[in-house]
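Hello again,

I reread your note about wanting to compare the complex against the isolated chains. To keep things tidy I'm splitting this into two emails, and this first one only covers the full assembly. Below are the input lines as submitted, including protein chains and any nucleic acid or small-molecule components. They are followed by the predicted structure of everything together. The single-chain runs will come separately.
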Amino acid sequence: MKTFQEFGLDASVLRAITEMGFEESTPIQEKTIPLAMEGRDLIGQAQTGTGKTAAFGIPLVNKINIKEERISALIMCPTRELAIQVAEEIEKLGRFKGIRSLPIYGGQDIVKQIRALKKKPQIIIGTPGRLLDHINRKTIKLDDVQTVILDEADEMLDMGFMEDIQSILKLVPEERHTMLFSATMPTNIQRLAQQFLRNPEHVSVIPKQVSAPTIEQAYIELHEKQKFEALSRLIDMEAPDLAIIFGRTKRRVDELAEALQKRGYAAEGLHGDLSQNQRDNVMRKFRDGSIDVLVATDVAARGLDVSGVTHVINFDLPQDPESYVHRIGRTGRAGKEGTAWTFVTPREIDHLHFIEKVTRHKINKKPLPSLAEAIEGKQKMTAERILDVLQKEEHSEFKGLAIQMLEQYDSVNLLAAAMKLLTGDKKDLTIELTPEDPIRARKKKFDVRSSGRRVGGGYGSGSGDRRQGGGYGSGSGTGGSSSNSRYPRKDSRDYGSNREGGSSSSSRNRDYGSNNSGNRDRSRAPRKSEDTLVNK
Ligand SMILES: Nc1ncnc2c1ncn2[C@@H]1O[C@H](COP(=O)(O)OP(=O)(O)OP(=O)(O)O)[C@@H](O)[C@H]1O
Ligand SMILES: [Mg+2]
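Full-complex prediction:
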């Protein structure tokens, strides 16, 4: 892999990259950065957690003129949390160059945003809906925009942002540099690319073969009623540093988070019905480790980058393979290892095999964790905590008392008693969750080869790559295909709330939130709200 020195980047940008701890470029960065520096339009596809943000962020920050007092670059993301996360990465990359960037997303006070816009940011990172609000209010002008980046473009289209994106792109000068990043290349993305990109280079880092993944994947077959007990045992057994647990619906997430809290875990829920403030709080706690279990709907599946997530647990099987790949991609990022567990009820086994087939990755069957394994896991955890204190030498004030106690009692018994206390009693409260219906296997056979859909990207298949990439999807590597087949709509997905404007549509199960905060009257087709995850 290339080092960042080899790209001919500005010294201030190189310094930022070094401070961020990046040593070598990832495959998608190695391919994208030189092309972007030449000003080529491009379409980028690569696996989860492989540094796509910096792949566009580095060349962008490198080329921005800091004397510019008008908006010269626009990055569009599907969700608020992603806008925040991408903005933070851009901020870090541009710190030494003195670049001004600003996230603009719904659910945040618009007056505050207008004030921030007065500071003349050169880069705006926003969600399409709120961007359009500002454009209509004339608080954002796109006349001087030279670079446009669409992150998670397929998700934005899935969420119904096609029209918004088109309206925005039409307002940007035609002479511009456009980059589009997408996990998959359905025809609507190809159409969008045709309409708005000039002779784009397709940069795709997807290994043809499934190589050793950094994410270990396992599933447990169980009945709906066994899930919660299995979950607590699994957490005890595996002792994750940070874990994300995905549930199918908002109700599920609320119930699960509450149940976990009752059992003594530091868990909180995240879904689209929470206010922006609540969402930000939950994410802050998760990032700083004050909670170590995040229970979420698919609102957290895309793009979220929290370091230290060692485990992803699909409490409910995801609706489609794409969602599976994005969910499990919250761990095993930047070459680190991670483990993904999936709970599958007997009626869902076919659907699991379907996911395996599309992702071309075997998911290993594991038995239900036993009570003994759970207890052993907890005890190990206690021992680790004790050793940690010992190593950090944070215990001197207890030494006097320890000596006194040791004069009277046996050391093994004393330590065992202390460990019991530290481990805590398992609170065996009976927990009842509202059952969810099983996910049905698809009737239609899904042909990976002809579909043109790819899930994830890849760390490349290059042999010298120390991060081993998992391989998902197939495909020829360029161009995508002609098939229009999409997975059925993700009916029960959590598209969150806080819609800013737009008529609220209702559909079975779907999590359209409440809290409509906008006052814009949009007379057009309802769309899903821009929403997903928080970051950093
Ligand atoms: N060259 C690099 N060396 C080390 N770490 C890196 C490098 N580039 C990016 N990272 C880190 O890797 C993590 C994942 O990056 P990022 O969020 O951009 O992934 P992504 O490809 O956009 O994933 P997703 O598909 O899930 O959105 C981030 O924490 C980022 O800071
Ligand atoms: Mg990303």
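For quick reference: The pocket of magnesium ion (ligand 2) is lined by residues 52-53, 303 (CB under 6 Å).

B.
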